[in-house]
From TrEMBL:
Keyword set includes Aminoacyl-tRNA synthetase: no
Organism: Bifidobacterium tibiigranuli
Residues bearing PTM N6-(pyridoxal phosphate)lysine: K198
Cofactor binding summary note: Binds 1 pyridoxal phosphate per subunit.
Designated name of the protein: Phosphoserine aminotransferase
GO MF, one example: O-phospho-L-serine:2-oxoglutarate aminotransferase activity
């Protein structure tokens, strides 16, 4: 039976949503949904009003990421987990190498392992709490890893593997919880892809990718291969990147998208760009994350889970608690006081807090959260 602790209202965050995904949605996004939804919700996504909305997202993200010449913003249905399967069908030609250092980076590798038309992937593993980027490997045509491992709070560089250009191997970076929160030079990637329910404060069910000319060429080449007689490659329409590219160029998606997700995403992209774009959002996330890391390092009962300061995420912060303190009880008391979604990743199984510090989260609310945690622990 958990003990009840009432946190004084004066200590609590103004907005107490700290989820690592779904993440906080700003009130302005809800207003945009209420205002724009009156004319957009329940209408065809292949007509101009919704297509103009999609165009604004594509243009806004192109500006936000300072998209290199020839790169395109492409949208598709299904979220980043669908993109893993799509990449197996439409971007990996024969064999890929993966960095695997947490639940989500491992899942893409598992998808490639199960694809019957691909050779077994090469896996570069690291223990949770650290990362390992794949190294140059012969006969590999794609290198894949996560910029931010949501399950552990580890951030990895998004950069080309040495020699990958000479191999004509693509670099595919899962940026689901990193995009918008961590710095990136998109020219270092061929597919920098994410779902909008993290830093972009929207709902899931959609994937967005910044694609290089090489990735676009690969998608068309593999689609053509699948259409040839005798090919063993399977590219179903839902997993066809060529189809997603062609639909995105028309400012639409293959299947009906959630219009509410598009409205909230468009508002978030507008807000981020108006405040200073990627440089502003990454600095804001770094400020919030460092408040938590500095507190944990000075605390008698809390410690940053990720040992290497250079690998500590500025998007998702993981903090281990001393064994004498039950993290589940702390989390339950915080939730009873309206402070939400501070639990560690369930499969990691640590006595841990996990706190999303995406751009929508106010740094002042992070400071208030720290005060609340200390208040609760002192009384348990």
């Amino acid at each position: 039976m958990f003990k009840t602790v009432t946190i004084p209202e004066s200590l609590r965050p103004h907005d107490a949503r700290f989820g690592s995904g779904p993440s906080k949605i700003r009130p302005e996004q809800i207003r945009a949904l209420a205002e724009g939804g009156a004319t957009l919700l329940g209408t065809s996504h292949r007509q101009d009003p919704v297509k103009h909305l999609v165009a604004s997202i594509r243009e806004g993200l192109s500006d936000f990421f300072s998209l290199p010449s020839g790169y395109e913003i492409v949208l598709g249905n299904g979220g980043a987990s669908a993109f893993w399967d799509l990449a197996c069908a439409s971007l990996i030609a024969r064999r890929a190498a993966f960095g695997s250092y947490g639940s989500f980076s491992a899942k893409f590798a598992q998808s490639a392992s199960s694809a019957p038309f691909l050779d077994d992937p090469v896996i570069f593993e690291a223990e949770p709490g650290s990362y390992r980027i794949p190294e140059r490997t012969e006969h590999v045509d794609a290198y894949c890893w996560a910029q931010n491992e949501t399950s552990t709070g580890v951030a990895a560089p998004a950069r080309r593997v040495e020699g990958s250009l000479e191999q004509k191997a693509l670099v595919l970076v899962d940026a689901t919880s990193g995009a918008g929160a961590l710095p990136v030079d998109v020219s270092q990637c061929d597919a920098y892809y994410f779902s909008p329910q993290k830093a972009f404060g929207s709902d899931g069910g959609l994937w967005v990718a910044a694609l290089s000319p090489a990735a676009i060429d690969r998608a068309y080449s593999l689609a053509g291969e699948a259409e040839r007689d005798g090919s063993t490659r399977w590219v179903p329409p839902f997993l066809s990147l060529r189809s997603a590219i062609e639909n995105s160029r028309k400012d639409q998606t293959l299947n009906t998208p959630a219009i509410a997700t598009l409205i909230m995403l468009a508002e978030q992209v507008r807000w981020l760009n108006a405040n200073g774009g990627l440089a502003w959002s990454t600095a804001r996330c770094a400020r919030s994350a460092n408040l938590l890391y500095q507190w944990a390092q000075a605390s008698e009962y809390a410690t940053p889970f990720v040992n290497d300061p250079q690998a500590r995420s500025h998007a998702v912060v993981t903090i281990d608690l001393d064994g004498a303190i039950d993290a589940k009880q702390v989390i339950a008391v915080l939730r009873d006081n309206g402070i939400l979604d501070t639990a560690g990743y369930r499969k990691l199984g640590r006595n841990q807090l996990r706190i999303g510090v995406f751009p929508s989260v106010e740094p002042d609310d992070v400071e208030a959260l720290i005060r609340c945690i200390d208040y609760v622990v002192e009384r348990l």
